[in-house]
Design goal:
- By secondary structure, this protein is mainly alpha-helical.
- The protein has one domain: MetI-like (MetI-like fold).
- Helix content is about 70%, strand content about 0%.
- It has 16 helices and two strands.
- It is globular and about 75 Å long.
């Protein structure tokens, strides 16, 4: 190396060092009161929505203490105290009807809890698909039904499984049946039918959270297992599945706490005179009493009791979680 080259290199190094020394040092920005205020303002619209749709309607519970007539308003309705609560347990017929409704509710929710592992297995299997385009296509097609309303789902079910639908027409044309099969207007296997439609609609959506949990698993666990000779099924069994269990347990406990809150949209659109006895869950029963039966006060009393029982279930599940896992969910 020549003297000229050495001198040029020294000058270049000195110039870089001078620039680094003269460059202003940027310190990390500290979070102050202004940042906290901004975050609170961003959160405020959602707090208003929660208050407006979850807490403000609780004021309507007062109608459970009145013989409420919408035309007269609360001021013109007669105050009856706990009359509606006594009526719920004062009639044998009423108790039998409520017992059937509760059986339907627990059956629907129980079947949903028993099949709550299906999204876990689906997420694990979907994660093992190597072809990215095929995995994305399957995930999109299985998630899309979640965004379809139950009214459209029933329209699809009616066009396929009604007595004049595609399935009965095809089976009749093939000579397999002589009379139509009553898939929808029948009381047979109503619980399993509702479970099947619910799984079809929510399987892909329920797997999203587990796919996110799989993405957060430490890759070194898989690398160590492969070095030890584990195959793909052993990786799924001994690494992926156990790592998903904390997420599954939390969601399972929330499902148990919401045992009485299984919604009414699905059962409302599928109900008819043939399956009403076994499809009427608690939410649908409250709706039918309040609007169809024109007894808003009785419906408010039932809804009030359902909310109280749901809160008690949530507290119980939270206590179990704290005793079993050492951490509570609320």
């Amino acid at each position: 190396m020549t003297v000229h080259q050495v001198t040029s290199a020294e000058v270049l190094l000195d110039d870089v060092s001078t620039r680094r020394a003269s460059a202003p040092r940027t310190e990390p920005r500290r979070k102050g009161p202004r940042t906290s205020r901004t975050m609170f303002l961003l959160l405020l619209p959602f707090l208003v929505l929660v208050f407006a749709f979850s807490y403000l309607p609780l004021a309507g519970w007062v109608t459970a203490l009145y013989d409420y007539k919408p035309a007269l308003g609360l001021g013109g309705s007669q105050f009856v105290g706990l009359q509606w609560f006594r009526m719920l347990v004062g009639s044998r017929t009423q108790l039998e009807q409520i017992g059937q409704v509760m059986a339907n509710t627990f059956a629907m929710s129980g079947l949903g809890i028993l099949t709550s592992l299906f999204p876990v297995f689906f997420a694990i299997l979907l994660n093992e698909v190597r072809a990215k385009w095929f995995r994305n296509m399957v995930q999109t097609l299985t998630t899309l039904p979640n965004f379809i309303s139950w009214v459209l789902v029933y329209a699809i079910a009616f066009s396929l499984f009604s007595t004049s639908g595609l399935v009965n027409t095809t089976l009749h044309d093939w000579g397999l049946i002589t009379t139509p099969i009553h898939f929808l207007d029948s009381d047979n296997h109503v619980w399993l039918t509702m479970l099947a439609w619910s799984l079809w609609k929510g399987l892909g959506w329920g797997a999203i959270m587990y796919l996110a949990a799989i993405a957060g698993i430490d890759p070194t666990l898989y690398e160590s297992a492969r070095i030890d000779g584990a195959n793909r099924f052993q990786l799924m069994r001994y690494i992926t599945f156990p790592q998903l269990m904390p997420t599954y347990v939390v969601l399972l406990m929330l499902s148990v706490a919401n045992l009485l809150n299984n919604g009414m949209e699905q059962y409302y659109v599928f109900q008819n005179a043939f399956n009403r006895d076994h499809i009427q869950v608690l939410d649908l029963y409250v709706y039918n009493i309040g609007l169809t039966g024109n007894s808003l006060s009785m419906a408010a009393a039932l809804s009030m009791l359902k909310s109280v029982v749901s809160v008690l279930l949530l507290l119980f599940v939270n206590w179990v979680a704290k005793r079993v896992r050492g951490t509570s969910i609320i």
